[in-house]
Amino acid sequence: MGPQVVPVASDPTCPPDADVVIVGGGIIGTTSALYLAERGLKVVLCEKGHIAGEQSSRNWGWCRQAKRDPREFELIREALRLWRGMDAHIGASTGFTTTGILFAANDAKKEASFADWVRDAAGAGIQAEMLSGAALAHHMPGDTRPPPAALWCSSDGRAEPQRAAPAIAEAARRRGALILTDCAVRGVETGGGKVIAAITERGRIATPHVVVAGGAWTRRILRDVGIDLPQLKVRASVLRTSPVAGGPTPALWDHDFAFRRREDGGYTIANGHVNVVPIVPDSFRFAFDFLPALRMEFASVRLRLGPRFVTEWRERARRTFDEPSVYEAVRVLDPAPDNHYLAEAFAALQRRFPAFAGARMVQSWAGFIDATPDAVPVISPVDTVSGLVVAAGFSGHGFGIGPGAGHLVADLVTGARPIADPQPYRLSRFFDGSRPRPMAGL
Ligand SMILES: Cc1cc2nc3c(=O)[nH]c(=O)nc-3n(C[C@H](O)[C@H](O)[C@H](O)COP(=O)(O)OP(=O)(O)OC[C@H]3O[C@@H](n4cnc5c(N)ncnc54)[C@H](O)[C@@H]3O)c2cc1C
User: Fold this and answer.
1) Residue 189 to residue 42: CA distance in whole angstroms
2) How far from 384 is each of 190, 191, 211, 222, 265, CA to CA, in Å?
3) Domain 20-430, what architecture?
4) Where are the domains of the chain?
5) For position 125, what pLDDT does the model report?
6) How far is the CA of 33 from the centre of ligand 1 (A)?
7) pLDDT tens digits for 105-139?
8) 418: number of CA atoms within 13 Å, CB side?
9) Which family does it belong to (predicted)?
């Protein structure tokens, strides 16, 4: 079972029409709803399960610029600016706080690559630095085996995933958006090359705009309108601890573990170097596209053949709008966590930081990260279907960039000046021969 998420009640009625229908109530769908509703549009957000039921409540909660792909610099810089003002803007708490984030550099090669990154980021207005010795110890008190150096981004922060998207959804509702939960979108009705309606399990909503922010389901949704989005899933596991007195405030990634302090005094902990990739029918379909990513993450990838193969094979079957969809069959995608890797990470952390010695693992869970071949999201209109916008493929770092992405979605739908150059996020890069490659990975 996933973590406990602040509940968001559904609005009772499904309207016959809307200016925009948003598919998916994660951080991307809810921020899109907020910024679209603020522009006076009639917005309906449809979530098949509950708000933030999938990735957006299961993540580490890191809102980081550190170690980002340079193609995301402008958008993440803006996203952090939005996070800093978010609580005041929506009149509710997302738990966002600026704490700084550290990435350990355990060898000279990594140190040199982080130092290069620091220079590139400075050119984009993101301040970061390399730390070592006493300066590093200041941020990681109690570390008995500190790394030789670390990348430090002091303006990075964290928010609380179990209440950020719910708080933003409620704020969108206060601005006039309708929030429908337990309301799957079965498909998008098109005609004459444009969006006509969203077909939900509660009825048809006539609309000229649909935003697909369906996370790991986005490929399945787009396939029905003839778009072959290259997207695969990575299973990532997390544990949370009982409260820890005297633990570090900033978040840290190191080879064996990654952690961040939670508002409840415990920590969210993960294994720093394991990415479990289930083998599914699409693994073969996209083997070539994902080869550069596989090479880049080779040491951390654990390929697994299991029941997921059959599940996704079955989910491929086409259904009519009158039949219950695969989305209704799986209200919340809730994979079992890889507790073995989590136990390794927790033990390594306890050996290194005595403050964690008495902590207990309270809960563990997993989520499916939706990844693209270049590990950069798609935030883009669809050239072949006017009115259709995709915002997915956030490749393991969409929570932090969420408000920036939601703002960009609203800009694309309304034709406003974009908050950041949308060019790196265009869908067409996968079909026009660009063959984009990963630069920073998940
Ligand atoms: C373990 C883990 C750790 C992570 N750590 C971080 C981190 O520290 N920092 C960071 O920035 N990112 C992190 N990420 C990634 C981040 O969580 C995601 O990139 C982000 O939450 C994606 O948001 P989303 O709204 O696109 O997708 P989701 O949160 O997955 O939301 C998609 C929603 O769409 C709904 N949906 C799908 N199909 C339909 C349909 N047909 N009808 C209606 N609803 C539908 C789903 O039910 C789901 O709720 C992590 C992810 C995981 C799994």
Assistant:
1) 19
2) 11, 11, 15, 12, 49
3) 3-Layer(bba) Sandwich (3.50)
4) 20-430
5) 95
6) 15
7) 999 999 999 999 999 999 999 999 999 999 999 99
8) 17
9) Belongs to the DadA oxidoreductase family.
